[in-house]
Amino acid sequence: MGTFTGSFKGFGVTFAHMFRKVVTTDYPFKPPVSAPRYHGRHILNRHPDGLEKCIGCELCAWACPADAIYVEGGDNTEENRYSPGERYATVYQINYARCIFCGLCIEACPTRSLTMSNEYELARDNRQDLIFTKEQLLAPLLPGMEQPPHPMRLGETEKDYYLGALTNPGTSVGAERAGGLDAAPPTGRGESANVTQPGVPTSRGAK
């Protein structure tokens, strides 16, 4: 009796789906729109003056359970400055053949440098092409930004850049769209949707 009841329930599920409308996705001509907080390709964000938010601390690499991130840090100098702090990432790589898109690297980032976009088309013909470099991951320069290296424009110390970072995410939101990726802004780690105007100081101590 139990076997008959189980079979009946199984056929019930089959018959219920037989009369449902078939949904066909016309991919790649009409790709589906991903959820706003979808975990896609990573982005290394910039400050409004163009300096990199990444300070090369390697916490994202330590937090990665798949060992997909490789970072080499270097020292900033006043003549050769890439980030507001003492350090910056000279090498930054993410191996998307290993990445499981869990977002733990986003949570580990202390400067809110690393966010995840909505881009999901990452298939490649060559495994080597799945290793994205810093140049590929960096957010594009928006109007009002200057290509590093250059001196700090938003304050005298790195504190001027990171004070109020939770309420002023800088270019974390919107940089993806400027790069030509027609998708929603990256929303890793609770990024705000209020975008500050590029080139305008975003911290209380900025000048």
Helix content range: 10-25%
Please tell me the overall pLDDT. 79
Rounded radius of gyration (Å)? 22 Å
Poorly predicted sequence stretches spanning 5 or more consecutive residues: 171-207
Describe the protein's architecture and organization.
- Helices cover 19% and strands 12% of the residues.
- With 207 residues, the chain is of the alpha+beta class.
- Strands 2-3-5 form a three-stranded antiparallel beta sheet.
- The longest helix has 17 residues, at 2-18.
Write the layout of secondary structure elements.
Elements: H1 2-18, E1 42-44, H2 59-63, E2 69-75, E3 87-95, H3 104-108, E4 114-116, E5 131-132, H4 134-137, H5 159-162, H6 175-178
Antiparallel strand pairs: 1-4, 2-3, 3-5
